[in-house]
Amino acid sequence: MDFANATFKNFENIKGHDIYQRAEVFGEFLQYMKDNGHMNYRLLNSSGCGPEMYVNTGVHQKETSYVSFVSNDYLGFTQHPEVKAAAIRGIQEFGTGAGASPLIGGHFSYHEVLEEKIAAFFKRSKDSSIIYTTGYTANSATLMSLLQKEDLAIIDMAVHASVYEGCILTNTKTFLHNHTESLERILKEAKDKYRTKLVIIDGVYSQDGDMAPLKTIIELARQYGAYVMVDDAHGVGVLGETGRGALEVCDLMKEVDFITGTFSKTFANVGGYVIADPKVIDFLKFQSRQQIFSATSTPAAAGIIKAIELLDEEPQWRLKLWENINYFKKGLTDIGLDIGITESAIVPVKIGDPHKTGDAGKLLLKAGVYTNPILYPAVAKKNARIRMSLMATHTKEQLDKALNAFEYVNQKMDITRQRV
Length: 420
Prior knowledge:
420 residues, alpha/beta, Aspartate Aminotransferase, domain 1, Aspartate Aminotransferase, domain 2, 2 domains, 7-stranded mixed sheet, 14 helices, PyrdxlP-dep_Trfase_small, EC 2.3.1.29, Glycine C-acetyltransferase, pyridoxal phosphate binding, glycine C-acetyltransferase activity
């Protein structure tokens, strides 16, 4: 296999290779990436996530401090003393685990409070919520329960992998990213052909940081008798006057049927949620396999409850985040780099050539800046980029260090957009 042009996807199913043979070839590919300094994956962190992290990258001989842009802890709440204290109190009161699935003994008072808190957060008075152990399963397990062979999922092509996995039991049609004409064609063709039609989109998309045209998508769905699900994992806490996300920005909070999201970003923990009509939520509590057969979240989830409260109690973190976003974006564009159309805390530097993107990631590490080179299949082959997440707790000095590093990399190898 030509490792120079290979991607992770090439190793999913190698013809004629059994499990161990595939693993062996893949191991050779990983070694090739390490030898070329492109192995920016599964690096060993020895400090908590934050704007600066100690990481063993293999670039230096020991753990080194890096300015970090790999965390989606947008408001820095994983290190907030009140969030930590709430998690500790949860453990002290309930122990370290739930011990069972929610259905058969694993539903505790802190789960009930969390479900009430996250439902109330979105100010949809008639709706309730269900929580999952990951944001991934909030999408995948919910969709597997709701959509069957008689139904249709209509998916923006840029949605998260969890949505695609959740739709494996149903019919699916994808439309071009944020392309409402493509969506309308599918809705027209599907009219009266399926029992349930569900349009599934993100509020903010994880690779480009752009927003969905929510108003038009919701109007089209209603026109053609479809429901709408919005996964706003990257919008909540970042967008909106009070941090309620993309739906708040567009004043459409009550106009969609399902809101899904994660506790692993703004809310500084792990887990996911679905907000919907109470009857649907009750259905999921007894029909979703993840709810029936998997243990529920640990008492440390009490920290999430405090993080939800802090969004309203300490709005300065979101304001500081936007100061950092605007400063950093301007710095990158002044250098001449392509950051696309991001409207969020996700800031890509689009390079285009996968090998050059890997080299850029290597040089950034050498300069003390920890980023994520994103390659196919996470993005199209022509859309390789360095992806960064901004935090409220980044200092101006840290942002300047990153900007200086990007300027150096650009001077050394020209990472202005190279389309392939």
